[in-house]
## 1
Amino acid sequence: MKLMSSLVMIMSLLALPVVAEAKIAGIAAEINHMQGVTNQTIVAKKGVVKEAVAKDKAVNETSKATKAKSTSSKVNINTANVEQLQQLKGVGEKKAQAIVAYRKQHGNFKSIDQLAEVKGIGPKLLQKNKGALTLK
């Protein structure tokens, strides 16, 4: 049972962008001690953990860069397709489809605030995305 909780703790630490190496080494040592494994295995596990942490950091940085890039260019609500509308914060496939359907039925949006007339688009969602929206 204690081994299981230690493994869960290691897995949760790996999910963090920055991991305290000493904490991981201590947990690995505890697991190895409980299993009667040598110190060489601890060193090997630390190397694996370092590699996993480095990969996790790289994924986090790529994700941040992609998100920044997707929100840095404005989305034209009069021409954007469903996929492009999904780049907006809080807009999934259903809301994006509702925006396109509204536009087809009522014509181009005259103002960004008119987007609030679309079912599922409230003032909070509109406010979160106002800086990322354009009509041109």
## 2
Amino acid sequence: MLNNYEKEGTAVTGGQAIETECSQINQAIPSEAERAELRRPAVDIVASDSEVLLILDVPGVRDNGIDVSVEKNVLSVKAVPVANDTSGRRLLYAEYRSGEYRRSFSLPDDADRDNITAALKEGVLRIRLPKIAPASKKIQVANG
């Protein structure tokens, strides 16, 4: 249980202390519409001889809320996080943003588009782009 909380000479108790501090930190809580935005997830891209790996941070997203697609030479990621349930409670302070994650990447020429895989674990999406072995062809040179 919280004890008395003293700030600037005013003693408040328990939940009232938290509410007072939160209101001082964030005088105007933005509306859900103001907090909703299109977000661009952070990404790391690493490569080996056999694949390119994209690692994207998409916290709050479940596997049924994510779409990875390829159209022409572009890989697109769209992810919708699950909203925090605040029903029956009054929001005092809000830093989490709602809205979709979206990011697009140009595929490298040697990407095997038919064998791209994606896995989501603990808010981290890993997309593996296998590389196609370079095709080499010996061309016969004729005399004359």
